Amino acid sequence: MHDQFDVTLEDADLLGEVELTTNLIIAASEADEHLSSAEIDEILGVVPSPRAES
């Protein structure tokens, strides 16, 4: 008989966010000082957008 409460929940976006948060926690715990914005961006895989020239 099928148990209606036996379901697998998986949210790919949530799993991705958990992985990014975990990576930040690990990096912060291994760092001697605060992580710079550039280091955090690198850990998160952020690619800076080119600045528009004025």
Structural commentary:
The longest helix is centred in the middle third of the chain and has 19 residues, at 12-30. The chain is 50% helix and 0% strand. It has 54 residues and is mainly alpha-helical.
Specify the overall morphology: elongated
Would you identify the regions where 5 or more consecutive residues have pLDDT less than 50? none
Q: Overall pLDDT, averaged?
A: 87
Portion of residues within helices: 40-55%
**Tally of helical runs:** 2
Radius of gyration: 18 Å
Number of strands: 0
Structural class, by secondary structure, is: mainly alpha
Helix-strand pattern, N to C? HH
* Terminal CA distance: 68 Å
**Main sheet, how many strands, which sense, barrel?**
none
Strand content: under 5%
Characterize this entry briefly.
This protein is mainly alpha-helical. It is built from 2 helices and no strands.
What is the element layout, followed by pairings?
Blueprint: H1 12-30, H2 37-44
List keywords for this structure.
single chain, elongated, mainly alpha, 54 residues
